[in-house]
Amino acid sequence: MSEDCIFCSIVAGDIPGRIVDENDDAIAFLDANPMAPGHTLVVPKAHHVRVADMSAEESRALFDLVHELAPRIEDAVDADAHTIAVNDGPDAGQEVPHVHVHVVPRFADDGGGP
Ligand code: 5GP
Ligand code: ZN
Prior knowledge:
- By secondary structure, this protein is of the alpha+beta class.
- The protein is built from two helices and five strands; from the N terminus they run H-E-E-E-H-E-E.
- It has a five-stranded antiparallel beta sheet with strand order 1-2-3-5-4, covered by helices on one side.
- Strand 1 (19-22) and strand 2 (26-30) form a beta hairpin.
- It starts with 5 loop residues before the first helix and ends in an 8-residue tail after the last strand.
- Bound molecules: guanosine-5'-monophosphate and zinc ion.
- Guanosine-5'-monophosphate binds next to strand 2.
C-alpha cells in the first residue's frame, strides 16, 4: 500500500468506494466521474503504478475480474458493448498512479467513445 494513493485508500477501506466485486488480487469499484453509467475501474489490490510492474499472477487476476465483470456490467446497465482500456503512463493520460482498467459501457447511439 502507498500512503498517499487514492486507490490504495479505497482498497484498504479508508475512503469510500462503491465496490462492485473482487478476487484475491484485484478489486472493482465504480468510477467517481463516470464516462457512462456503470463505468467501473478494476485495479490490483497491491500498489503498482504501471502494468509492467505487476507480477504475471496479479496481471491474470486483474484481467480475470475484467473478464467476469464486463458482461455483468453490460447486462446491468443494458449496454450494447463496452470499451476496456488502460492508460499506462502519464503520457498516455494516466492520472492516478495505480494501475486501473476502465470498463466503460457503450451504447449504440453514444456518439463515440473514450
Ligand atoms: P486515468 O485518467 O488515470 O486513466 O483515470 C483515472 C480515473 O479515476 C478517472 O476516470 C477518474 O474519474 C477516476 N477517479 C479519480 N479519483 C477517484 C476516486 O477518488 N474514486 C473513484 N472511484 N474514482 C476516481
Ligand atoms: Zn495505490
